[in-house]
Design brief:
Length: 204
């Protein structure tokens, strides 16, 4: 960590635990078939799911797309519940770690995510001990708002420029090796944790 002033941290699989199979099963139970191939890629969803994460379609458009795939008049609530089923828990120790890290580093979140997942996460995960998500990070970068996705270089270049930080002074923590490879090509230091790993040892 010598010389590191900035942290860029992924959300899914790094902060929040993910259970993709539960999401797949939830959609299949609603009649959405052949969805496993679209979601099973651990690090970047495909087709309709990729479109909602890059913000090229609205949340309403995503829901309509799910209805077409299912051939049923599903409610917004049914669709959202199935999609959110991917999201598991954020361990308390990671939330405490984030609060502590912000005291010592310029801490940022960079996530490939979508409006449904993010709004649920803000309400559910970051209300810890009366906090708000802005208490955990100096800046928050979300793919659906930026219209850019990891592992493409443009999203990393945007974050570096917008935050006014140097790549060589920055550690990027992400569970997807392709994302880390792009970050490394731009001069960032990286760490790729395993699923549900406690990566707090990096700061001991």
């Amino acid at each position: 960590m010598e010389g590191i002033k900035n942290l860029i941290i992924d959300f899914g699989g790094v902060i929040i635990n993910l259970t993709r199979n539960r999401c797949i099963e939830a959609f299949e139970s609603l009649g959405v078939q052949d969805i496993r191939e679209q979601i099973v890629n651990n690090y970047q969803h495909k087709d309709l799911f990729m479109q909602v994460e890059i913000g090229s379609i609205t949340t309403a458009g995503f829901r309509d797309g799910i209805r077409r795939l299912s051939g049923q008049a599903l409610t917004d609530e049914q669709i959202d519940a199935a999609w959110i089923a991917m999201l598991d828990d954020v361990p308390d120790y990671k939330l405490n770690l984030l609060l502590d890290l912000r005291k010592h580093y310029n801490t940022m979140l960079l996530s490939n995510t979508n409006e449904i997942h993010w709004e649920w996460s803000e309400r559910t995960c970051f209300s810890y001990k009366g906090h708000h998500v802005s208490d955990f990070f100096n800046r928050i970068y979300l793919s659906y708002k930026l219209h850019m996705l990891k592992p493409n270089a443009d999203i990393f270049e945007y974050v570096l420029q917008d935050a006014g930080i140097k790549a060589e002074e920055t550690l990027f923590i992400d569970d997807a090796m392709p994302n880390c490879r792009t970050a490394e090509s731009l001069g960032l230091h990286t760490y790729t944790p395993e699923p549900r790993e406690d990566w707090s040892f990096l700061f001991k």
